[in-house]
Amino acid sequence: MDILLSVLEFSASYNSYSNLRMRMHHVTAERPPLNLLRQELAGTSIYLDILQKATSASTTNNENAVDINVSHGIDVTSVNDRTKDEKLEGVAEEKLVSFCGQILKEASELQSGTGESANVDIHRVLELRSPIIVKVIKGMCLMNSHIFKKHLREFYPLITKLVCSDQMDVRGAVGDLFSMQLTSLLP
């Protein structure tokens, strides 16, 4: 997982907003700049899947272990397994929240910069990066609801900045996120 993260971080740094804008000046307008956008999107997809499975599987296993322990008495091995699962879930949750927060922060910072100057480069970069942003937001739709609720204070300001995005697919993903995660939190 660390190797995947390092590949993902490399492609993300190569595809950073400033690098992407700089490379766009050296490539013709008909084709996007040569970069690792596809690799970053694929890596993002795999990384999110791994982290989501680790956080959701641990929750399911913990609930099943409690049911078994109640009916058969407490087994020392199942307690140790539960402790390992809780550690794995904690690490996966930390990485998932950090990764989603980082992508949302970058997107919302660039999005808030578009109102000040209607620079064509910024809009083009947002357009090229939108599949990655959409993937992360859609991944947050599937995020364990307890984790989402726990970290809502971190996510909400970043998500609300994306509501006014120029990219319709980003706005659609934010709408899906609101309907799937936030409506369950309303009284």
UniProtKB/TrEMBL annotation:
Organism: Aquilegia coerulea
Protein name (record): Sec7/BIG1-like C-terminal domain-containing protein
The organism's place on the tree of life at top rank: Eukaryota
Residue ranges annotated for the Sec7/BIG1-like C-terminal domain, each copy included: 1-179
